[in-house]
Amino acid sequence: MPADIWTLPAPGRVFVDSVNMRHILRWRPPQAACNTTVLFSVQYQGEFELLVKNGTWMDVFDCQQIPFTHCDLSFEVGSDSDYDMQVRAQCGSEVSNWTKLGSPFNRKNTQLTVPEMTVKTAGDTLQVLMEEFPLSAAIRVTVWRKDEQQKVEYSLTAEQPMLHIEALQEGKVYCVRAQLMLYSGVRSSSTRPHCVLVTGPEIASWRTPTTVAVTLIIMLGLLFAVFWSVIHCRPGSCKNFLKKKSLPDSLNVKVIPMVEQAHNEEFWEPKPQVLNSDSV
User: Fold this and answer.
1) Do 143 and 154 contact (CB within 8 A), yes or no?
2) Any idea where the domains of the chain sit in the sequence?
3) CA gap 152, 217 in Å, rounded
4) Pick the residue with more confidence: 120 or 136?
5) Which residues form the Fibronectin type-III domain (predicted)?
6) 199-215: buried (b, 16+ CB within 10 Å) or exposed (e) per residue?
7) Which one of 40, 126, 143, 203 counts the least CB within 10 Å of its CB?
8) What is the per-residue pLDDT across 18-52, written as a single tens digit (0 to 9) for each?
9) DSSP codes, 127-185
């Protein structure tokens, strides 16, 4: 297409700002007067589009006629191959020419920052929590006891960013260091060693006051219930409630003075009877 049909100057200084696998295309707006908002559109071309689709340029869906001077292509840049990108401006009916990158971009050149982590202890357990990091990356965590040279390495992913190490030796200092890595082999700088003292198993400090408070509340509640019942109890209801009930007949047992009867039988002697002659 002839150059004289591009009535609007093209954007300038197109480059990719890539940090931790987030790829942002940036550019400068054209130096031209426009009575309305200047809009921008972005396209990309990867190895697949270049070789398989015969050099086709693909529109970035979220970056068509946008008023911003940046575009996030983290989703579009899905492999470690080279990508070319271009942007053009539009002012009303006027459209500029496309401005390409100075050289193709490869995500292996992304800048990896030192990961952020939180290290703390809970009894004899060491907990390491990593802040948010790219899905396509992993974090290598190195743990060692300060008075020993032996080190143990662990790998954390974005789906599992927390590390628990249990049964550590009480009274010893343990150190932790972390490094962000891509599966392509690109690594960030390591964090400074973060050392903590393992105090050993102990009862959490909140349990004792909480238990005392709960017990006190329960006791006060019971005392209040009893006090309220005594005050609000009607005389008739309380009399019936406290009235002694007689036992059923099946539970009534009659006590027979067996001891006295046995006592009488023990000392009973037969008395001789005098028979009259008439009875003989």
Assistant:
1) yes
2) 3-109, 117-197
3) 48
4) 120
5) 4-98
6) eeeeeeeeeeeeeeeee
7) 203
8) 999 999 999 999 988 899 999 999 999 999 999 99
9) EEEE----TTEEEEEEEEETT---EEEEEE-SS--EEEE-SPPTT-EEEEEEEEEETTS
Query: How is residue 96 annotated by DSSP?
Result: B
Q: What residue type is 169 in one-letter code?
A: Q
Mean pLDDT of 55-61: 97
Q: Left (φ > 0), alpha (ψ -120 to 50) or beta: where does 149 sit? A: alpha
- Beta-carbon neighbour count of residue 221 at 10 Å? 10
Give this prediction's pTM: 0.66
How far apart, in whole angstroms, are the C-alpha atoms of residue 12 and residue 14? Answer: 6
CATH of 3-109, one of 3.30.1330.60, 2.60.40.10, 3.40.640.10, 2.40.30.110: 2.60.40.10
The residue length of the chain stands at 280
C-alpha 121, offset from chain centre: 17
pLDDT-based confidence at residue 203 (cuts at 50, 70, 90)? very low
User: Is residue 77 a contact partner of residue 107, using CB atoms and an 8 Å limit?
Assistant: yes
The fourth-level CATH superfamily of domain 117-197 is: Immunoglobulins (2.60.40.10)
Question: Can you read off the two tokens belonging to residue 206?
Answer: 């909140």
DSSP class of 193? P
Contacts of 101 (CB under 8 A, 6+ apart): 14, 15, 16, 84, 85, 86
